[in-house]
């Protein structure tokens, strides 16, 4: 792990922390009297705010997890060099695609 | 010294490379006895070919560190009573380093990483200028003082799991040295130090497990020094973008 990866992981954590708290707070508030899928989608569909909220979260998670798993792959499985780079990018892009698809599905699609 | 009618059961790691094997010895137990005394007794009384390293015998030179019952220790200052269980001792060469023979570890990677971490002095003045006056109470000087008692015994290096899993990692001793020089008011090239500890195996690889600080025989705190380097490099990253 060099300084660039370290900063990427720490800064993405900094972004994730308030978003996780916001997510949990909204969950607790929203489901107090029970909630249906239709009601959730009613609030998120077409909302630029929720798109930005979860979009930012997915972006931060993709960076954060890719760097974290990269270190584990290196230290526990001894993977190095180009293979390690390739796997790290694959994990990051994979999470971005999966998360992005989910965010788009509940906001705009 | 009074000789007790009892013995220590000592297992010593012998050989090197593929030929490593464990050899058992019975060593007379004394009231007052260090692990180094035990090793020396074996070499002087049973097998003169037993290879090990020591010099000062008083915890100053840093050459006698070994693994004792699985934990890194400075053997000259480690009393048998404090580390043995049921009169048993298992003595091995330092972990995380290649073995030359028996209990002698090859220290080259350890000292090589010291140089890589740029823990060298970059003078602010030449020998023709007057010596710079340093305020001993200065905050940076106080921080530097915290690390200067390192004796390079490599106990922290042997204790560190990150060193085990990441061959590039510079390790606690080298990074603490870099932090000490970084805080030296008389050092002229602090950015060279920050660059040296910002690479692939630099301070950012540390997981703050804390074994270095736990095992340091001189009770230094390499983990805190590494945290200092992380802070300094982060500040420099925001300033210079690298």
UniProtKB/TrEMBL annotation, chain A:
Main location: membrane
Transmembrane keyword on record: yes
GO MF assignments: metal ion binding
Gene Ontology terms: cellular component: membrane
Keywords recorded for this protein, A-Z: Heme, Iron, Membrane, Metal-binding, Transmembrane, Transmembrane helix
Domain of life: Bacteria
Keyword Glycoprotein among UniProt keywords: no
Function recorded in the entry: Membrane-anchoring subunit of succinate dehydrogenase (SDH).
Stated name of the protein: Succinate dehydrogenase
Organism: Ahrensia marina
Automatic annotation (TrEMBL), chain B:
EC number(s) from the headed UniProt entry: 1.3.5.1
BP GO annotations: respiratory electron transport chain; tricarboxylic acid cycle
Glycoprotein keyword on record: no
InterPro entries documented for this protein: 2Fe-2S_ferredoxin-like_sf, 2Fe-2S_ferredoxin-type, 2Fe2S_fd_BS, Beta-grasp_dom_sf, Helical_ferredxn, SDH/FRD_Iron-Sulfur, Succ_DH/fum_Rdtase_Fe-S, Succ_DH/fum_Rdtase_N
Keywords, in A-Z order: 4Fe-4S, Iron, Iron-sulfur, Metal-binding, Oxidoreductase
Obligatory cofactor(s): [4Fe-4S] cluster; [3Fe-4S] cluster; [2Fe-2S] cluster
Alphabetical list of Pfam families matching this protein: Fer2_3 (PF13085), Fer4_17 (PF13534)
GO molecular function: 2 iron, 2 sulfur cluster binding; 4 iron, 4 sulfur cluster binding; electron transfer activity; metal ion binding; succinate dehydrogenase (quinone) activity
Known pathway: Carbohydrate metabolism; tricarboxylic acid cycle; fumarate from succinate (bacterial route): step 1/1
Claim: ATP-binding is one of the keywords in the record: no
Superkingdom of the organism of origin: Bacteria
Boundaries of every 2Fe-2S ferredoxin-type domain copy: 8-97
Enzyme class, first EC level, given as a word: oxidoreductase
Subunit note: Part of an enzyme complex containing four subunits: a flavoprotein, an iron-sulfur, cytochrome b-556, and a hydrophobic anchor protein.
Family designation: Belongs to the succinate dehydrogenase/fumarate reductase iron-sulfur protein family.
NCBIfam families: dhsB
Protein name: Succinate dehydrogenase iron-sulfur subunit
């Amino acid at each position: 792990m060099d300084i660039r990866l370290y900063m990427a992981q720490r800064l993405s954590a900094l972004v994730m922390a308030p978003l996780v708290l916001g997510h949990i707070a909204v969950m607790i508030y929203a489901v107090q009297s029970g909630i249906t899928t239709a009601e959730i989608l009613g609030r998120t569909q077409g909302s630029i705010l929720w798109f930005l909220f979860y979009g930012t979260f997915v972006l931060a998670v993709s960076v954060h997890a890719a760097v974290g798993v990269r270190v584990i792959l290196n230290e526990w499985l001894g993977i190095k060099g180009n293979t390690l780079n390739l796997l790290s990018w694959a994990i990051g892009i994979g999470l971005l695609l999966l998360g992005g698809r989910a965010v788009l599905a509940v906001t705009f699609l | 010294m009074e000789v007790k009618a009892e013995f220590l059961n000592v297992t010593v790691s012998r050989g090197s490379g593929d030929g490593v094997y464990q050899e058992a010895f019975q060593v007379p137990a004394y009231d007052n006895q260090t692990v180094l005394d035990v090793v020396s007794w074996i070499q002087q009384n049973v097998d003169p070919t037993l290879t090990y390293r020591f010099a000062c015998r008083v915890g100053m030179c840093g050459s006698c560190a070994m693994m004792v019952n699985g934990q890194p220790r400075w053997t000259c200052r480690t009393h048998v009573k404090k580390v043995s269980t049921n009169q048993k001792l298992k003595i091995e060469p330092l972990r995380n380093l290649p073995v030359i023979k028996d209990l002698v570890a090859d220290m080259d990677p350890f000292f090589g990483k010291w140089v890589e971490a740029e823990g060298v002095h970059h003078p602010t003045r030449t020998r023709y200028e007057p010596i710079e006056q340093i305020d001993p109470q200065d905050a940076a000087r106080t921080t530097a003082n915290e690390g200067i008692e390192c004796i390079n015994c490599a106990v922290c290096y042997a204790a560190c799991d990150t060193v085990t899993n990441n061959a590039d990692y510079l390790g606690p001793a080298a990074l603490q040295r870099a932090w000490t020089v970084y805080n030296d008011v008389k050092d002229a090239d602090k950015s060279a130090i920050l660059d040296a500890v910002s690479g692939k195996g630099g301070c950012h690889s540390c997981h703050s497990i804390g074994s270095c600080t736990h095992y340091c025989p001189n009770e230094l705190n390499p983990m805190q020094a590494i945290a200092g380097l992380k802070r300094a490099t982060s500040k420099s990253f925001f300033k210079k973008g690298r």
